[in-house]
Amino acid sequence: MQIPADQMDEASLTALGAEAVQLLCTGDTSGLINRFGYALALGREPAAAVQHDLALCLAELQASKLVRVTGKAPAKVRYFEPSDSGLLAVVEALAPTDNGAAVLVELIVSASGQSKHVTLEQLSAAA
């Protein structure tokens, strides 16, 4: 999803991370994909890829489901040093599970020319 240059601040990016977690935790996979895409779809249908990757994370964490986040999901932003890669930042947010563990939701912020984009990069098991 394209974002305005003035939304590169930490508060705006953490809000996007929280939004991604909310969509994932409420089961709105289509909304998540429509909003952020999925970089690791790797030729798979994106919504199915997210559901498959989420199932793998839950199995690894020995959890059965995500739980809804009350309030704003915590997120952390790390900015990259300027480089030719176009990567600007990563947003890391946690989606809680029913057993107290969490799924790490990573968004990547990149630039192409003057355009800035945020994309769901991956889901992974967090301890």
What would your notes on this structure say?
There is one protein chain. This protein has 127 residues and is an alpha+beta fold. It has a single domain (2-126), classed as Nuclear Transport Factor 2, Chain: A (Roll), CATH 3.10.450. 31% of the residues lie in helices and 31% in strands. It has 3 helices and 5 strands; from the N terminus they run βαααββββ. The protein has helices spanning 10-25, 29-36, 46-61, and strands at 2-3, 75-79, 87-96, 102-112, 115-126. The protein has a 5-stranded antiparallel beta sheet with strand order 1-5-4-3-2, sandwiched between helices. Strand 2 (75-79) and strand 3 form a beta hairpin. It is globular and about 40 Å long. The model has no long low-confidence stretch (mean pLDDT 93).
CATH architecture descriptor name: Roll
Distance between the termini: 29 Å
Uncertain stretches of 5 or more adjacent residues: none
Q: What percentage of residues falls in helices of 4 or more residues? A: 25-40%
Helices and strands, in order, run as: EHHHEEEE
Can you give the mean pLDDT?
93
Short description:
The chain has 127 residues and is of the alpha+beta class. The chain is built from three helices and five strands; from the N terminus they run βαααββββ. The chain has one domain (2-126): Nuclear Transport Factor 2, Chain: A.
Write the layout of secondary structure elements.
Elements: E1 2-3, H1 10-25, H2 29-36, H3 46-61, E2 75-79, E3 87-96, E4 102-112, E5 115-126
Antiparallel strand pairs: 1-5, 2-3, 3-4, 4-5
Main features:
127 residues, 5-stranded antiparallel β-sheet
